[in-house]
Automatic annotation (TrEMBL):
Protein name in UniProt: Transposase DDE domain-containing protein
GO molecular function: DNA binding; transposase activity
Species of provenance: Saccharopolyspora shandongensis
Superkingdom in the source lineage: Bacteria
One Pfam family matching this protein: DDE_Tnp_1
Lineage: Bacteria, Bacillati, Actinomycetota, Actinomycetes, Pseudonocardiales
One BP term from GO: DNA transposition
Residue ranges of every copy of the Transposase IS4-like domain listed in the record: 5-123
InterPro entries: Transposase_11 (IPR002559)
Length: 137
């Protein structure tokens, strides 16, 4: 899952349980819809990407930079307390919100397409609730 600074999910993918997270980094970035700017300006992606130590590989740093995004990954082999937890808790909060949905807390479906549909519905409900709480209506 990749979220924006306020905790709204931008893109999600479903993988097997024993798959490394970094393998889904580039598909998630590709799945982010471009943000529309002023009229006539080109669409653009987010400027900075925060991630934990699992993503700290030069290969992925280069791939993220090639997309025009500045990678802010915690360094492997350094002490904890890099300060990135200030930003990363937003993702943990979004995952916790998804766990409010009983069907997503524990996977009961055998077919992955059904589980992915429930995952996307859960993300849509999170977006809707955020918009509803922040609207002036």
């Amino acid at each position: 899952m990749i979220v924006e600074g306020g905790g709204i999910p931008l893109a999600v993918t479903l993988t097997g349980g024993q798959r490394h997270d970094v393998t889904q980094l580039m598909p998630l970035i590709e799945a982010i819809p471009p943000v529309r700017g002023r009229r006539g300006r080109p669409r653009r992606r987010p400027e900075v990407l925060y991630a934990d130590r699992a993503y700290d590989y030069d290969k992925y740093r280069k791939l993220v930079r090639a997309k025009g995004i500045q990678p802010e990954f915690a360094r492997r082999g350094t002490e904890h307390g890099s300060g990135l937890g200030v930003y990363r808790w937003v993702v943990e909060k979004a995952i916790a919100l998804l766990h409010w949905f009983r069907r997503l807390r524990i996977r009961w479906e055998i077919r992955d397409d059904i589980h992915e549909a429930f995952l996307r519905i859960g993300c849509s409900i999170i977006c809707w609730r955020k918009l509803k709480n922040n609207s002036n209506c």
